[in-house]
Amino acid sequence: MTPSGFDIRPNAHPKDAALRETILENPGFGRHFSDHMAHIRWTSDVGWHGHEVRPYGPLTLDPAAAVLHYAQEIFEGIKAYRHADGSVWTFRPEKNAERFRASARRLALPELSDEDFIGSLKALLSQDNVWVPTPASAAEESSLYLRPFMIASETFLGVRPSKEVDYYVIASPAAAYFKGGVNPVSIWLSSHYKRAASGGTGYAKCGGNYAASLAAQKEAEAHDCAQVAFLDAAENKWIEELGGMNLFFVYKDGRIVTPKLTGTILEGVTRDSILELARDQGLTPEERHISIDEWRAGAASGEITEVFACGTAAVITPVGELRSEDEGIRLKADSGGEVGKRLRKELLDLQYGRSEDTRNWLTRL
Ligand code: COI
């Protein structure tokens, strides 16, 4: 039993050490998984129970399980970082726990406490610490990506909140999310598809939002773009976010603007951290509406000097170009992405323990 009350059922057949080392040398993103997973069950009569860490492996679900039909599901993304002294830490897990509860409320799922959320990460890492990569250099961003998720597992085809729910955490060693690493990506502006509307699930981290983005993502890939940018559903004017990350715009005069949270945008933990780090670097962060016309005009006049995407998986990735059916918006001058690079370095230095954690953002796993 771990200090956070999880029973441990060790994997009798973990991947052998040589295979693990090969995976850790070049993990890619989301392709390989560690030896265990954490699990907690919820039933409407008992509440949360059965905390355990068990061997990683397929789930057994009844074909009539509610999640398979009505997508009652939420998830999170958070990373474990190995510091130079070998210790393993995570970044602002209470923010992910809070967002997970907000997502749960929206999807009519039960809420999980900070104690169980953070406890499940610690319990999993108590078994799978060897799966946290050691970055080869300060420029490298390898980590163990943790994916907590919650599914409606009741066998029932009626449309109502499930009375049985399962929560899991799986872990996947990860390098850069985009194949080109931190090179600028091109993104596609979907003229037709929308990600979220007012009153919908845009702010929740639920699978449905990502499923709904995939047709647009396919369109993006057909145009050699790595991600799709969505405009708001009401006016088709305001920039919201990319399929899986938030956006920032850097202005020549030191302002750094990100679309404000209106209920249709995911409240990224990286987004929130950048707002704070930017302020400390003497930049002027602004959370406000920003229109596609402002992007177009700012890029053309040189007022906007950088655009970057951010998220747990993406960290900070520069955006080189926005393409659409009838135009391409490119920044006028190549600023070298200096502001994004500086913020990225500061964020990574903090996460990997290379700078002092003055804000208490790190939690040891
Ligand atoms: C994350 O950044 O953790 C996400 O969930 C986004 C996804 C594109 C991997």
Q: Give the termini distance in whole angstroms.
A: 16 Å
Order of helices and strands: EHEEHEEEHHEEEHEEEEHEHEEEHE
Spans of at least 5 consecutive residues with low confidence: none
- Strand proportion: 25-35%
Choose one word for the global shape: globular
Please work out how many helical segments DSSP would assign.
8
Q: Outline the biggest β-sheet.
A: 9 strands, mixed
Structural class: alpha+beta
Attached small molecules? 2-OXO-4-methylpentanoic acid
Q: Number of DSSP strands?
A: 18
**Global Rg:** 21 Å
Query: What's the pLDDT, averaged over the residues?
Result: 94
**What proportion of the residues is helical, as a percent range?**
25-40%
Structural overview:
This protein is α+β, with helices and mostly antiparallel strands. The chain has helices spanning 17-25, 66-70, 93-106, 114-128, 207-222, 269-280, 292-301, 338-351; strands at 7-8, 36-43, 47-55, 73-75, 78-82, 88-91, 143-152, 164-174, 185-189, 227-231, 239-242, 246-251, 255-259, 284-288, 304-311, 315-323, 328-330, 362-364. The protein is 26% helix and 29% strand. It is globular, with a radius of gyration of 21 Å. Strand 13, helix 6 and strand 14 (284-288) form a beta-alpha-beta unit. Strands 1, 2, 3, 4, 5, 6, 7, 8 and 18 form a nine-stranded mixed β-sheet that branches. Strands 9, 10, 11, 12, 13, 14, 15, 16 and 17 form a nine-stranded mixed β-sheet that branches. 43% of the residues are buried. The longest helix is centred in the middle third of the chain and has 16 residues, at 207-222. 2-OXO-4-methylpentanoic acid (COI) is lined by residues 77, 244, 311-313. Residues 77, 244, 311-313 line the site of 2-OXO-4-methylpentanoic acid (COI).
